């Protein structure tokens, strides 16, 4: 807001240097705001990808765990079948 005020005062009193300084300050502020917005957007994208990665890892772990459980149950069943067939 300072830049806008400087520009207005400079224009009102006919001081081109002050008016120009005001415009420069406005431009600097706009650049800072834009850089801040870009950083925020990059952080949001990073967080989103991180969350998706964690979710994929959890799903892969769950799938592996389930596969191991199923294999264990299958082997247990085979052992029980074998014991039944070979028990006198």
List keywords for this structure.
mainly alpha; 2 helices; single chain; rod-shaped; 88 residues
Multimeric organization:
single chain
Q: Please work out how many helical segments DSSP would assign.
A: 2
| Mean pLDDT over the full residue set | 93
The major pleated sheet works out as: none
Instruction: Compute the CA-based radius of gyration.
Output: 34 Å
The secondary-structure class comes to mainly alpha
Q: Gap between N and C termini, in Å? A: 95 Å
Beta strands, count: 0
* Poorly predicted regions: none
Global geometry = rod-shaped
Order of helices and strands: HH
Percent of residues in β-strands = under 5%
- How much helical structure, as a percent, in the residues? over 70%
Whole-number count of domains: 1
What does this entry look like structurally?
- It is a single chain.
- This protein is an all-alpha fold and 88 residues long.
- The chain has one domain (2-86).
- The protein is 94% helix and 0% strand.
- It has two helices and no strands.
- It has helices spanning 2-13, 16-86.
- Helix 1 runs antiparallel to helix 2 (16-86).
- The radius of gyration is 34 Å and the shape is rod-shaped.
């Amino acid at each position: 807001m300072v830049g806008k005020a400087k520009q207005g005062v400079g224009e009102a009193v006919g001081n081109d240097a002050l008016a120009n300084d005001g415009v420069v300050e406005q431009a600097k502020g706009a650049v800072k705001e834009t850089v801040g917005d870009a950083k925020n957007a990059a952080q949001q994208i990073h967080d989103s990808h991180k969350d998706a990665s964690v979710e994929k890892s959890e799903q892969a772990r769950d799938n592996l765990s389930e596969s191991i459980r199923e294999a264990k149950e299958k082997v247990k069943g085979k052992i029980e079948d074998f014991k039944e067939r070979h028990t006198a």
